[in-house]
Amino acid sequence: MSRRMSCREFAPIAKGIEAAEKKRSEKWLAGRLDLLPSHWANLVRREHKRRGGLTVPDANRYVLAVTASAAGRLSLAASDEDLRKAAKEAAADASAIGGVVCAVGVVKSRALLEGLCGRWGVLPPDGGGDMPAIRRMLCPRWWLRRLRRAHGRRCETAAITAGVVKRGLWPYASQDAVEMRLAQRRRNARSIEAAYVICDASGESLSLAEVVAGSIANPEVKRAELMVRVKGCDAIASENGDACEFWTVTAPSEYHAMKMAGPVAVPNPAYTDKTPRDGQIYLSKLYARARAAWHRRGLAVFGLRTVEPHHDGCPHWHMIVYGPAEDLRLARYLMKRYALREKGWEDGAAEHRFKWLPAKAGTKGAAYAAKYVSKNIDGKGLEGDIDPEGQKKISASVKRVDAWASKWSIRQFQFFGCPAISGWRVLRRMRGPIAIVGSMLERARSAADDSDFAGYWRAALAGGFSLIYRAADRVTAYGDEAAARIVGIAEGARRALLPEKVWRIEWAGASAKGGFGVPRSCVNNCTGHDFAALAVANL
User: Fold this and answer.
1) Rounded to an integer, what distance in angstroms lies between the CA atom of residue 429 and that of residue 498?
2) Which of 55, 165, 311, 453 could lock onto 171 through a cystine, CB 3.0 to 4.6 A?
3) pLDDT (tens digit, 9 = 90+) per residue, 84-112?
4) Is residue 372 annotated as part of the catalytic site, yes or no?
């Protein structure tokens, strides 16, 4: 019969078991933290310790939640060089699968390649023909773009869950997101500086950097254009005797990872792992319902909406709204009703979901917009001011806001109820009179040339302009039809066409394009703003 072990005899065995368990737990924690970017792995370690450490289940669940986004073939700590290697590996895997096209057919091959996208954690190509989609999934550059986007969003999701994106630490976006955005801008600048746009027919050669500097890709040009349009809205509102109001719309509590407890940001228990992208989609749907309701009632409202992040990355909208006083009152009522439709009963909803204030006598929307436009583009004129949301100088916050908008693909500025900007930009590219003096088309061109958006607006309404498109006579590098191009503008039978030349972009070697063997020359029939968009799209 075996003898029962005494407590004194069992004590060293228990200590050994405890030490082994502690070592195993520490190894588990280290393994989970190794999945995170180095910038904030230590912050997560400290928060885990503050919550009680390895012996507290809630603290361990916090680490699991933070690192849940790390599931997949790429660690959250992967560098851009790792992503480049992964893109080449994914393209090689795709090429191996693509080799069976003849055997299993195009449709099944596309399905197999889309399965590969799922394993790498990226979205497959949207719609389009089967062969163009397959060609995209065989391209290393396509994989690199998709991997950068997917990996960046996974990292930001984990950072928000970890609570490191907040006031007092990293407002709006994680430090990794900011540094990745700055690195992207440096890559773009190097490539653009070394490239030229060339017209073989005329022998013209322009520096691509100069072309981009004159387009809305330049923050100064973008800010100036936005302010010209807001001033045009002010002028039209003054002519019509319209009122002006300022609205702020915010998402429900479940979209906010943090909440303020006095001056300190603390985790929000109502948060449900919604990303800033989810918050933007929610606000866009809310706005679409309100716009539809305005349209059904024939309300004449117009203005500008800007999107800004809260300190924890959740977006909110600031809106400058113009219109007849009665229309504006009803539009405001409808917007508030839709804003409170989802969980309008929760604490603080009535106070924070929808706010508004009327413009003071003599105050115009441009004065209100100037601050929001500047602080979300380049901080011009606000360098020494403190950002009330992030509690940092606006000059420092601009970089973080830019990284946030880029990471989540959020359009920061959008006008509504105003003439589309495309016609304005076409007319600004015209040189000299384009129609009979006194015609609406010539009045619009002259107003656009003088940066008079209100004058362009009046002429556009009276003239009923339409843009002239020409179907593309080429295909993209992936084999699908290129988008139709704007080649002019028309007022009834009166037409004004842009001067058309065939240009090509000459890049300075494959190294400027990421080393993926991209063609050094890119041909396109375009000028001005089109070149800036084409250049950035090819980087």
Assistant:
1) 7
2) 311
3) 999 999 999 999 887 766 567 788 888 88
4) yes
Beta strand pairing call for 413-416 and 302-309: antiparallel
Q: E-strand spans in 382-520?
A: 386-387, 392-393, 413-416, 466-470, 485-491, 494-497, 503-506
* pTM, full prediction: 0.86
Both tokens assigned to 433: 């009179």
- The three-point CA angle 174-178-183 to 5° equals 145
CA distance 166 to 312: 5
C-alpha–C-alpha distance, residues 422 and 189, integer Å: 26
pLDDT band at 231 (very low <50, low <70, confident <90, very high): very high
The pair of three-digit structure tokens given for residue 340, joined into one six-digit string: 């409170």
pLDDT digits (tens, 9 = 90+) for 491-512: 888 888 888 777 888 887 544 4
The answer to whether 83 and 151 are in contact (CB under 8 A) is yes
> How far is the CA of 263 from the CAs of 160, 207, 259, 311, in angstroms?
19, 50, 10, 12
Q: Is 125 helix (H, G, I), strand (E, B) or coil?
A: coil
Please return the burial class of 207, using the count of CB atoms within 10 Å of its CB with bins 0-12, 13-18 and 19+: middle
**Catalytic residue of the set 172, 287, 368, 456:** 368
φ/ψ (deg, to 5) at 473: -105, 25
Given the residues 287, 372, 456, 478, the one annotated as active site: 372
Query: For residue 384, how many other CB atoms are within 10 A of its CB?
Result: 9
